[in-house]
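Backbone shapes recur. Consider a single case.
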Amino acid sequence: MQEMVDAEKAVMNPQDPLSQLRQQLAAYAWFEDKLFAELAGMSEDVYRGKIAKAEALVAKDTTPGVAKMLGDMRREMHALAAPFYTKVLEEQIADVQAKQKVILAQIEAMEGVATPAPLQVEAVEAPVKGGLPKKEIYMVVICLLVLVAVVIFIHLVKRMPRSGSTPRN
């Protein structure tokens, strides 16, 4: 048991550059798994299932009509935003994989294992060409959220009784 503890201490030594690289590699592997899970959750079938569950909960708290309207709005928003978000996720996955290759090459070089070709860190840090910048993606998402808020507000205002009117029986 003590041997395992000593081995873990040797691997987790914060002053050892090799240990730091291994920790970075593990962090990037974890982040890559999270990005793949997020990408898998963006599929139309998975998202429709999430919306159906939420729609059922909203129908319990409000009316089925409101729940259906909100569900339809979420489906439309997903149809509009999903391609942009999917592209961003794919770019992030490619970036993480490139960084993993660089770190792996550094680890192999430190351990004395020959690598096929050394990778340049500068190549990994280069910005992705094409596609929308983050600022524009955020603006699209914000515009969609404002649109949803306005539609909900209009729907709620239409449902409110007018002042001075008599309630219907």
